[in-house]
Amino acid sequence: MRKPIGWIAALADFEAKGIPCVLVTIIEEKGSTPRNTGTKMLVSADSLKLTIGGGHLEHKAVEIARQMLKEGSHQPKVERFSLGASLGQCCGGATVLLFEPLVQNNIPVALFGAGHVARALVPLLASLPCEVRWVDSRAHEFPELIPAGVTRVVTDDPLDEIDAMPPGSYFIVMTHNHPLDLELTERILARGDFDYFGLIGSKTKWAKFRHRLIAKGHTPEAISRVRCPLGLSQVKGKLPAEIAISVAGEIIAIYSAKADAQEASTLRLVQP
């Protein structure tokens, strides 16, 4: 007889195949219900693993989970169902379901400039959960081997790359050209929907940029979101590798804090 598949093994199967899914968990039950608290089901766009009891409840749960996948939702949600009144199931109790999107979510990063620091930084970003677009107009500055997860973009119109990035992107500007750095900074600030923006440069450079940005109408609140000098303040080194490690550390700190906030949000959802 074949042994039933547990939800951890089922999730591992989805993850190994790179398939986004939603974990549906019964977190509360009242009265007569088809399954007990803790029962789980995994829903992908076109398949289903395990069950929370079948019937109209499961049909509705699958519908909600697939809509979350379609919308690209990353936030968990809680839904309450009255099995008798709203779903017409004979058991007649009530069930609360937690929906948790489990999407393999590589962070979109746009890195402008292919100088010494960028060449030291890119392999570090490639080893993290990042999807990197590496942008420069000088094809000869890129190394022959580009790490997996990194797309080389040779263009004379780098501003277009900013517009093409999704909301919540991470922007890193370290070109060889200060006027271009300022143009990129203005365009990124105009978007305003980034999760991180780091600009390479000294405090003197940033003071000049800040003065010009204010003169062009950018608000102090928007300007304060720019990390310049970029990287962890505790790292004082000037070598390209030292700066690269500092920047990678700052990026890790940003996305780790966001993940912690999402986890705290999930805990608040499931608390009675």
UniProtKB/TrEMBL annotation:
Residues 16-81 form the XdhC- CoxI domain. Residues 110-251 form the XdhC Rossmann domain. Pfam families: XdhC_C (PF13478), XdhC_CoxI (PF02625). Gene3D superfamilies: NAD(P)-binding Rossmann-like Domain (3.40.50.720). This is Xanthine dehydrogenase accessory factor. The lineage of its organism: Bacteria, Pseudomonadati, Pseudomonadota, Gammaproteobacteria, Pseudomonadales.
